[in-house]
Amino acid sequence: MKYHVSFDLDFKRNKSKGIYIAFEGIDGCGKTTQAERLTQYFRSKGMSVVKTREPRKEGLVGDLVHKVLKGKIKFPTAALQYLFSTDRVLNQEEIIIPSLEKGKIVISDRCFWSAVVYGILDKGKDYYDDSSANQLLVIHSILSMYHQFTVPDFTFYLKIPLETSLNRLKTKDDTKEIYEDRGKLERVIKNYEGLFDRFKDEITVIDGTRPVEEITKQIIKITEKKL
Questions:
Q1: C-alpha dihedral (121, 57, 218, 106), degrees to nearest 10
Q2: Which domains does the chain have, with CATH numbers?
Q3: Percent helix, strand and coil across the chain, each to the nearest 5
Q4: In the predicted model, is pLDDT for residue 139 greater than 60?
Q5: Is residue 205 over pLDDT 90?
Q6: What is the DSSP letter of 54?
Q7: Higher-confidence position of 78 and 84
Q8: Are the CB atoms for 99 and 21 separated by under 8 Å?
Q9: Which of 54, 152, 167, 198 is the Cys-Cys partner for 20 at CB 3.0 to 4.6 Å?
Q10: The dihedral formed by the CA atoms of 163, 21, 137 and 75, expressed in degrees to the nearest 10
C-alpha cells in the first residue's frame, strides 16, 4: 500500500545577531578563495569572523568523511549524505550556532544545500528533479536532531562552466576527490541549476569566471547591506 504525505515547510532561519554566509558551487569554482577573502575583509574592519567548511576535515566524523572523499575508504554512495549530515549537525552545534549567538560573522565553504545537489547524484539520479529534492530536504532537515538546519542569511552560488572547473582542478596539488570527474561534475552543475530555479530567494548566483577581486567586491556590496 502506498501513502501520500504532503506539507509546506519553511527553513529554519537565523534569529541571532550574527550573520551566516555560505558559498556553494562545483569543485574549482572559487568557494574557498572567496571565503578566505571575505574573512580577511571583515576582520580588517574589526569584525569577529569564524570561517568553517562542510564537510570538515577534523574530528572523528570529519576525518572519516575526508578519507571517503579521497577514496581511501569505500562507503556506499547511497549512505554518503547521511555521513556528511552527521558532520554538518556537529558543525552547526559546535561552531555555527554558538558563533551566531555571539554576534559573529560565520563564513562557510558549503552548507546543507550541497546535501540536496550531491545527494541526488549519490542516489543515482542523472539530474535534479522535484521529487528527489523534496525527499532529500525532508530527510536532511525534519529528521535531523535540529529538525532543520539553519539556512544561511546569504548563500552565494559561484557559477562556472564545466571546462573551467576541469582546468582549475588540474592545478590542484591534492589528491583527486571522488566527485571530481567530468561526468559527475556535469550532473552536479545541472542539479545546482535546478536548485537555483526553485529557490531563487535563497541563493544568489555569482559569475565565477570573473576576476577574483571583482567577485569579492560584488559579494561585499551585497552582504554589507545587512551589517
A1: 110
A2: 19-223 (3.40.50.300)
A3: 45, 15, 40
A4: no
A5: yes
A6: S
A7: 84
A8: no
A9: 152
A10: 60
